Prior knowledge:
Layout: H1 14-38, H2 42-45, E1 50-56, E2 61-64, H3 74-85, E3 95-98, H4 101-104, E4 111-120, E5 123-133, E6 162-166, E7 169-170, H5 172-181, H6 185-213, H7 215-238, E8 243-251, E9 261-270, E10 273-277, H8 293-306, E11 322-325, H9 344-361, E12 376-383, E13 386-391, E14 396-397, E15 408-410, H10 422-428, E16 431-438, E17 454-460, E18 464-470, E19 491-494, E20 501-502, E21 511-514, E22 518-522, H11 537-546, H12 551-556, E23 562-565, E24 568-571, H13 573-579
Parallel strand pairs: 10-11
Antiparallel strand pairs: 1-2, 1-5, 3-4, 3-6, 4-5, 6-7, 8-9, 9-10, 12-13, 12-18, 14-15, 16-17, 17-22, 18-21, 19-20, 19-22, 23-24
Helix pairs in contact: 1-6, 1-7, 5-6, 6-7, 8-9
Amino acid sequence: MRRAAEQETPCADALALELVRNALDSIADELAIVVMRSACSSIVRDAMDYSTAICDAEGRTLAQGLTTPLHLGSFFDAMHALRRSQQGSIRDGDLFVFNDPYLAGGQHLPDIYVVRPIFVSGVLEGWATTVAHHNDVGGMVPGSNSIGSTEIYQEGLRLPVLKLHDGGQENRAILDIIAANVRVPEKVIGDLQAQVAACRTGEREFRAMVARFGADTVRSCSSALHDHAERLARAEFAKIPDGTYRFENAIDGLGEHPSPIPFQVAVTVRGSEIHVDWTGTSPQVRAGINAPVPFTRAAVYAALRSVLDVDMPNCEGFTRPISVNAPVGSIANPLPPAACGARGITGFRMMDCMFGALAQALPDRVPADGSGGSTLPSFGGAHDGRPFVFVETIMGTSGASAAQDGAEGVAHMGANQSNVPIEMIEAEYPLRVEQYAMVPDSGGPGRFRGGLAMVREFRVLADEVSLTVRSDKRARPPFGLAGGSAGTSSMNIINPGPDQRVLPVLTMAPAMLRRGDLFRHVLASGGGFGRAEERDPALVLDDVVLGKVTAAQARAVYRVVINETTSGHALDMTATRVLRGNAA
């Protein structure tokens, strides 16, 4: 009997499969564009912290918009919860809304799903799905990313799977309940309506695709797409040397007196299958950084997807050769009512652990460690008589690879998000961005240099502002690979200077800022790849000219002599050879 991956699923032909695949990808991307152009909040519109997908009738992802990879793999858990809870009551014109990790297969309360079934000629043929990180869903702190929460009841409004539209009729009471429980209802309701518009677009375009190709062809090609992705994944996994690759890392810890929160992963490759085991990872914690298991699986899928050298469809079939064990009651699979509002840091750290393990098997494909995903300052308060909430997912820097330096101002592999433009912040919120820059000499030295740390400074223009911060990699800076040095650490400072206050990497309680206060946030930098003394002196000269490396660090760390002349900087190759000990 043949394996499922080897069995041919009926499909008209290879051309039809490719046409349907690209049509599905286009629809998922169109959903993403509708959300971005229609959203009201900066976290969705500018930072792009959202995802869209088209699923088949069974809720399996067929295509995902080019947005947040860490949402990859999460849609199926959410759709399974929806289909289970609504079995027998799903009909044309319905629209579902939910967010709860324990009641609805969600990830954390700020991520609200809006999902629409797609019926064609009375038959359920697919789903248009969206998930967006909302500016606020209530709870203890503005932005609803409370690290100090000890249970989910403190984190905001919990939504099980509910019908926002029932057979085409809007249930206004649900929107009224949401609006009454959040600090900035116009933003939240506006973003929900953007998701609704995207789902309607997905429904329209999916029906047009069925009308073009025929329902039977779309069904058979959708099924074949899963099998095709599985075959591709198995072929790629089979190229990885068999073995178990282990890696350990840690989140620095919580509050003013942090204790490390350990992560352990074992990635076992056996033929064309991969098993990922998180045994040894920290038990769940009494803080808002626990990661519900759908997010853990998404972190595993995103990390593995990123190291494959193949044009892989973003569909559920890719995940079939992958199994994940996350011990129940761990930070990677918490029991309710564990808090999880700031669980993003845990997902990023799990991906970094995956990369550390995979680097042992695929040293030429995996870069050194980066800044650790987005850091999350959340500002909230009142200004000109109105409440405001500003949440930013600040992206930073990547580590160096075997072929190139790390990049600055880029998203973590799991995020694919962007930093909010300064002009948008200052136009909408009582904040002034006084510095947004790269930090010289911060990139992890190596044959290829890690990306430089990013710094962002916010001046408070309101009378009183609440600030919470989710950051990391201060005690444990980003690691280098192949002899490369670690990057530099992160830092959070209020009013830099003699009387400055240093905030912990994970603030358990909000810091209260007054008008005129300055908050400086420095992200960690990227680790280096290879020994610094092996770096091409010409590249070191380029870094000095660009201000990324000082002449002093060039001499002390890279063993390269750069002299300043009247016409600029010049490389002294003779002195460099002497310094590197190869004058002959």
